[in-house]
Structures are given as C-alpha cells and as structure tokens.
Design brief:
Blueprint (H helix, E strand, L loop, with lengths): L10 H6 L21 E7 L2 E9 L4 E3 L2 E2 H4 L3 H14 L5 E8 L3 H19 L4 H7 L29
Parallel strand pairs: 3-5
Antiparallel strand pairs: 1-2, 2-5, 3-4
Helix pairs in contact: 3-4
Amino acid sequence: MAQVTTTLSSLQDLQGSATPVAAPAELAEPKLDAQGRAYATGKRKDAVARVWIKPGSGKITVNGRDQEVYFARPVLRMMIAQPFDVAGRVEQYDVIATVTGGGLSGQAGAVRHGISKALTYFEPTLRPPLKTAGFLTRDARVVERKKYGRAKARRSFQFSKR
C-alpha cells in the first residue's frame, strides 16, 4: 500500500484535508444477571468480596448482617459508602456482599472495590468518576512474606558480640 503525503501551506488547506472523525464509541451495555443485579469481585490485601447490587433503598448487607453490625467502626462504613457518594447514587442501590479473608480494614476495602466495579457494570456511564477517584484500581499492596533466618520479613534477630 503506497503512503500518500501532502504538503499543507495554509490553515484552509488543513481544514480541507481533515479526515472524518470516527463515530463515538457505542455506550457499553449493563451486565446484569437474571434477577437484575450486577455482580463484581473486589479485593484488598487478603480479603475477597463478592458483591451484588440492585436498585433499592440503600440497604447494605455484609455476610448476612447489616453493615452497622459487621463494620462497627464508622470509618469502615464511610469507606463502603464512598463509591455511592462519588457517583451521586446515595441510597439508590441495595448491596449484598460476602467477604472472606483478611481483617476488617481489608474487607472494607474489598467491599468498596467490589461496589465500584458493580456500579460500572450496572451503569457504565459511572466509570469515569469512579476511575478518577481511584476506586476501580485494585490496591496491590500485600504483606511481605517472612524470610528464613529473620525474625520477621526484614527484622533480624538481636545481635550480641559476646
């Protein structure tokens, strides 16, 4: 295939040579199951959360318990609510989550990650604000493993010359 090069000498030449702009990308379709729910998996540290969201009154259930019971600390409940605040969908979706592994902080982060992903599956137009807030990125930081001949991952045993 031969490559065609043209020399442009003025602004009018540039405007006349403009190639047609591609049609905007089609909007992504929502990914819903048979019950009309969106499902996503969220991860943080060792915690893995399976999250389902559906339109509702804003009730959040974690491992069969209400969020106030499961996540007693207000900071953890605030973390879970952040995706809805950023998306402007406060108290519009019911959340059902099952979480395993890790501690409470990691589990709250996993639920937040899962809610964010499920929101993008339910409403693909919410992806840009959630992406800029950093809720769709899996936080890859995990605990460093303990090494042989060390007290912990990096800590050495106490040294004495005697």
